[in-house]
Design brief:
Chain A has about 110 residues and is mostly beta strands. In chain A, about 0% of the residues lie in helices and about 60% in strands. The chains are: A mainly beta (about 110), B mainly beta (about 110).
Chain lengths: ~110, ~110
Amino acid sequence: SQQGEEDPQALSIQEGENATMNCSYKTSINNLQWYRQNSGRGLVHLILIRSNEREKHSGRLRVTLDTSKKSSSLLITASRAADTASYFCATDRSSNTGKLIFGQGTTLQVKP
Amino acid sequence: ETGVTQTPRHLVMGMTNKKSLKCEQHLGHNAMYWYKQSAKKPLELMFVYSLEERVENNSVPSRFSPECPNSSHLFLHLHTLQPEDSALYLCASSQEMGQPQHFGDGTRLSIL
């Protein structure tokens, strides 16, 4: 069964704007991870947030986690054309530790 | 950028052929993974190896056969594939299961 579901499926913004992507999941987790995938390339790990954390920052990235709502958000501030990619959330479930379940992803287009 | 190398990058084969995909990591990681990525579908975990032992076989058809001869190498042997097996096959590794994964750029497989 699908654990992570991203919303929206596609997002188009202008350079300099902020981009927000959401992820919902169904079962309790150890951690939630966000990945980026550029066209024709593998996934690149961006940030990991543990179940006992509520917010985490890395450069222009800000991730929040609400375990009561089983949801997470990824905010990219001051977006750049190079941020154009697909973004995936992945959950490490408490019941099946170590095997990440990925969502379908959000495709982000940043227009110069 | 990636410490995980996959070969070949592209592969076209007939349904009766036998081929192998190769994955190599020199990151000192203990866990390695095979994923299938199809259009419009979430990333599907196929196999997981931890310390060279297979710990997951996600109901993958027997026409896919993994092999992990040592902690740095992972193979996916292919035999009598079907057209629906056409996809991007991604290899990943992590220090331990559940930790951030490093992905290769994948093998784009087309079955004729």
